[in-house]
């Protein structure tokens, strides 16, 4: 089977799984988020930090992530704790932006830090995923999740389409050789268009500058992808795992999503300030 067919089949299966969980309600969707988080953390601990699944440290991190997630998002729906983790994830992302643009690749900062503390790298998944439940604090949570997915998917798809057909100038060949400036701009345009249309359709609300905001969201999601690319360069890893045929690993699929997530909380609050959100 060709790689393209594998990608399509895998994407359809993932889409069906997400749609089914969302259809059946908050609880199945949150459990899906938790399971995705466990798999993502597993990839970071095993394939990057090179821990074994039998090691105490591996079990310790997985256990406490699961415990935190269940207590904060499922059992008690602790809004204050969700806000704390969201703000923490936001500050983490600010540091990751600094890491991406200011710390040279040759310093192997993440790799050296992980060698000293094998569990450190897993924080880039733990904080945003534990705080993910904050998107469920409104009756319109399905709309919010849909918008978040539309933004990240349209950025990836738009960047791929425009890059493949019109790409000439490399965006950052040292970090991600295949990405182009044309793809980046095209992805932002696609995100601005689809994000604004989706918001208007879901909430019957439109302002011209919403397109600018959604374009910026697309750019932020792409930064998350570049952060992951830089980390993989340091570790000499092509894919976070081979779990998803044609796509790589879980972290490969959700890197943009979890990076954008804490920023998106504030975007929704701003756009929805006149709506019952």
3D structure, described in words:
Helix 1 packs across helix 2, helix 4 crosses helix 10 and helix 7 packs across helix 9. The protein is 73% helix and 3% strand. The protein has one domain. Strands 1-2 form a two-stranded antiparallel sheet. The chain is an all-alpha fold and 277 residues long.
Give the topology.
Blueprint: H1 3-24, H2 26-48, H3 56-75, H4 79-102, H5 109-116, H6 123-130, H7 141-166, E1 170-172, E2 176-180, H8 181-203, H9 210-235, H10 250-271
Antiparallel strand pairs: 1-2
Helix pairs in contact: 1-2, 2-3, 2-6, 4-6, 4-9, 4-10, 6-10, 7-8, 7-9, 7-10, 8-9, 9-10
SS class: mainly alpha
Average pLDDT, all residues: 93
Radius of gyration, Cα only, in angstroms? 18 Å
How many angstroms does the end-to-end distance come to? 45 Å
Summed up, the domain count is 1
What is the N-to-C order of secondary-structure elements (H for helix, E for strand)? Answer: HHHHHHHEEHHH
Describe the oligomeric state of these chains in a short phrase: single chain
- Counting DSSP E segments of at least 2 residues, the number of strands comes to 2
Form type: globular
Low-confidence regions: none
Strand residues, percent: under 5%
Major β-sheet strand ordering: 1-2
Q: What is the helix fraction of residues, given as a range?
A: over 70%
Number of separate helices: 10
Biggest sheet, in brief?
2 strands, antiparallel
